Amino acid sequence: xxxxxxxxxxxxxxxxxxxxxxxxxxxxxxxxxxxxxxxxxxxxxxxxxxxxxxxxxxxxxxxxxxxxxxxxxxxxxxxxxxxxxxxxxxxxxxxxxxxxxxxxxxxxxxxxxxxxxxxxxxxxxxxxxxxxxxxxxxxxxxxxxxxxxxxxxxxxxxxxxxxxxxxxxxxxxxxxxxxxxxxxxxxxxxxxxxxxxxxxxxxxxxxxxxxxxxxxxxxxxxxxxxxxxxxxxxxxxxxxxxxxxxxxxxxxxxxxxxxxxxxxxxxxxxxxxxxxxxxxxxxxxxxxxxxxxxxxxxxxxxxxxxxxxxxxxxxxxxxxxxxxxxxxxxxxxxxxxxxxxxxxxxxxxxxxxxxxxx
Length: 358
Ligand code: F6P
Hints:
Layout: E1 3-9, H1 17-32, E2 36-41, H2 45-50, E3 53-56, H3 92-102, E4 107-112, H4 114-125, E5 130-134, H5 150-171, E6 174-179, H6 186-194, E7 199-201, H7 209-221, E8 227-232, H8 238-241, H9 245-254, H10 260-272, E9 276-279, H11 292-310, E10 316-321, E11 324-329, H12 330-333, H13 345-352
Parallel strand pairs: 1-2, 1-4, 4-5, 5-10, 6-8, 6-9, 7-8
Antiparallel strand pairs: 2-3, 10-11
The chain binds 6-O-phosphono-beta-D-fructofuranose (F6P).
6-O-phosphono-beta-D-fructofuranose binds at residues 12, 76, 113, 136-138, 180-182, 233, 286.
């Protein structure tokens, strides 16, 4: 029996989205031949709400393995607004269900991060056949050891740290590098260790300025004339960790800083007198071609999703556990986050290396 399968990519883009789409599509054509039709939904759930989609053919999935971003386009459509009817009067959930039906879909693959998984679960609860695929450079999706896009971002962030090393040492500076990760510090922890950062600050482990200053002082006492800090954008100090988001932002406005890295750099310069600079690679961390690891993972995940379609297994998301590709129920994944815990093995590695965690 013919199956019509929709694919969408939602949330922030990241390397490996196209490679995953390719993996799923090629495996579906391979196994199901003319019995499968693929529909590309544009711009994530926004496209599903609006009924914006395109009929795809087999050749559309060529030359995608190395291509960054997503050929389907993406958008952030916050989960908290999915069930809210806004000024435009559109009932988003009803609209998505209606368009799923008018597109004639038998199933929908949703490639995305935490927000995407919440909406994917909502749609599954509404009776649609949904399969999730875990992407994000934050690596914070519950139930999978790794998400596609993460390791490419680690490679990029590590290269940033490597390159900043040369300026830090030549100019005898303290360099504060702001890496992506609002809630999860995985990217900063991995790249910080891989890039040989001296101090790593992540949102899960609030820092104390004295500890940061002490770490810089210790390096100086050993004759090291520069220091490198890898700081996740969502990091906070101990006092801020007890505050609500709004209060924290208000405090930073009062301090006249845009973000945590700016404040840390200012504090270090003030207390040590060292020349200090901030570097923010920003979206470069999400850009461009996926690494070999991510191409492989994307292909494994994509082909596994194709198998789920073939076997009519829905309401699940693909995951990697102990080096095996498996699936987890969407209901178990939605609304949870995989964050760095104080006893994580890499935290121990950092401590053994004498890296300050603030
Ligand atoms: O979730 C991926 C991510 O890159 C985060 O690390 C970052 O905080 C956020 O997206 C940035 O979002 P945007 O691209 O919408 O500015």
